[in-house]
Amino acid sequence: MNKKLLSLFLTMLSVIILLAACSDDSSNTSTDSSGEEDQGTTTLRLAENQPEDYPTTIGDKEFARLVEEKTDGRYKIDVYAGGQLGDEVSSIEQVQLGSIDLARVNATPLTQFNDQIGVLSMPYLFKSEEEKWQKLNGEVGQELLQTFEGTSLVGLSFYDSGERAFYNSDHPVKTPEDLEGLKIRVQQSDVAISVVEALGASASPMAYEEVYSGLQTGVIDGAENNFPSYYTTNHYEVAPYYTVNGYSGTPEVLIASQQVWDTLSEEDQTAFREAALESVEVQREAWAELTEEAKEAVIEGGAELTEVDDLSEWREAVQPVYDEYADQYGDWIDKLSE
Questions:
Q1: Can the keyword Magnesium be found in this entry's annotation (predicted)?
Q2: What is the pTM of this model?
Q3: Cβ neighbourhood burial of 137 (10 Å; 0-12, 13-18, 19+)
């Protein structure tokens, strides 16, 4: 190739590279019909460890839809369900670092990052489900979400995770006395251990995946969880006595990265908060449907349900737990239960 052709070739190559660079720079912008430039859409990632059709995922997707609507398409949220972005603790850590933008996690693992949120694990904290959601969706709930300040996390709203109750393989449980002497599997949580021991049972922390075999072999006598988990794990097959008394209802929390939050305008922050709060209704409806389906399925599968209408003696039995955590949670307990 002679020098003239080589020079022409290099010139054309330079033009092509320049055009490609300009194209890349404008990939996030577009021009609308009026000829005005649109700044494009910012896409955020939301971590969810439950399946696509699970109530929390349904809530996430409603939140994402509302954010896109309220910001006129300037923000889009992709929901990564099924633990694609990691388990709950890993997701929280990544949200802190800003490598994940948002996540839906339970309040229990969040206590590692914000101990005040642990008040929501206290037993029989609310007198009714109606009162619970009035508080969590109201002024006190928003105040509790503000306690994430300084953790590099931003609390947006609470989601329903149902009511946890006791079940066992031995006999029906109607009163706290009926739990005495039973070995009950609990989460690795100080509050959960204190509750079970206050009720006269023996608390046995155990990995979740080992509970079925533990119940089957008699290593433990019982466990505690909500109806959907009781059903999907098949625990009702080996522990058919379920006490419907909802001793704990630790909610889920929708969180955002502080790094992302600080890039939002005040108007967009308001839009995100409104979207999160408005999505709660859809999420709770999905949870109620799943709970009812699971309840019917375990009854059909042979489970015996014991309904407890008066919780006064159960609340009295766990008073030592409130005494134990009075210094840590006292102010919040007053605000949430008054």
A1: no
A2: 0.85
A3: middle
